[in-house]
Amino acid sequence: MHISMKNCIVILVCFLSTIQITKAGFPIGKGRGLLVPSYTFYTAKGYWDANSAYRSYGNGSFNSHYFSLYGVYGISRSLNLVYNVPFVSQVDNNTSGASKIYTATGLGDASIGLSHFFKEFDNDRHVSLTGSLIVPLYQNQGNPYPNIGFQSLGGEVKLGFAGSATGGFRNPYYDIDFGVRQYFNLEGPTQLFTSITGGVPVSDSWKLSGTLSGVYSTSNTALTNQTTVFYNYNKSFSYVRIAANAGYTVNEDLSIWGGIFSDIAGKSVGRGSGLSVSAVIKL
Questions:
Q1: Buried b (16+ CB within 10 A) or exposed e, 264-282
Q2: SS3 of 25, please?
Q3: Which end of the chain has fewer beta carbons closer than 10 Å to its terminal beta carbon, N or C?
């Protein structure tokens, strides 16, 4: 039995928060701050079923608009406060053939946590451990509207490696994350995730970067069939995504980033692509 189209729509909602915000895993310093407002557009016209075979939605599509405000505050040289507040608009544009458009709009899953940077490394290499609490700021509308998220408290632990190569071409840099995310209810899900970013300054003002990311999500919730598709959704899925970004430094306190991304592999999940823009503001 393959996963139904509506199931995949709901899954798409849940992993938009994993989209890479252009930032580096470096300590920002005591008393300093960082704000990253961003916008991401995502669209999907099909999905991968439980056997990783691609299936089209037919005449419909699923679109999402994701706005977020990510922030960092330096509590000390080795400890940062991190937070993120999203606003989401999900649009199911006739994917089920019902000739209707359903929209769910509201605040998403906010997160707040602490990042600790270990001191055994130098200014060009950093290892960090981040723990965050996930708080849903919405209530799903239910059938037939797409869900904004899992509507559950959750927690996340992430290990990060970041650094730059001073001997390379214009000091290339890297930012690598591995982590686990757990939602606190009987169905979960439990999610393993990773993000690997490499970048290089091509001039004093411009930077280019590429990201490979993925999520593996598991739950004890069984896949739904067509008769229950409007009442349940699947929490077990996986996907791999690639992204390319370019950043322009306006001045020492402001840079602007833009990028494109695409899903390249998956299982029981929608296949889509999109674009993002963000500003990195130093305070």
A1: eebbbbbbbbbebebebee
A2: coil
A3: N
**Mean pLDDT in each 10-residue stretch from start to end of the chain (283 residues)?**
45 45 68 94 89 85 92 93 94 75 90 89 81 94 79 94 75 91 90 94 92 91 42 73 95 95 91 94 93
Write down the pTM of the prediction: 0.87
**CA 81, CA 64: separation in Å to the nearest integer?**
28
Instruction: Supply the pLDDT for residue 167.
Output: 61
Residue-by-residue DSSP string for 39-100: EEEEEEEEEE-TTS-EEE-TT-EEEEEEEEEEEEEESSSSEEEEEEEEEEEEEEESTTSSS-
In terms of C-beta distances under 8 Å and separation of at least 24 residues, what long-range contacts does 134-141 make, across chains too?
134/109, 134/110, 134/181, 134/183, 135/109, 135/110, 135/111, 136/108, 136/109, 136/110, 137/85, 137/106, 137/107, 137/108, 137/109, 137/110, 138/106, 138/107, 138/108, 140/104, 141/104
- Residue 194 to residue 8: CA distance in whole angstroms: 21
> Residue 97: which domain range?
5-282
Domain total for the chain? Answer: 1
Extract the tokens encoding 255. 């840079």
Between CA 15 and CA 234 the distance in angstroms is 13
pLDDT for position 49:
85
CB-based contact 198:164 (threshold 8 Å): no
- CATH number, domain with residue 135: 2.40.160.40
| Closest to 8 in 3D by CA, of 60, 47, 44 | 47
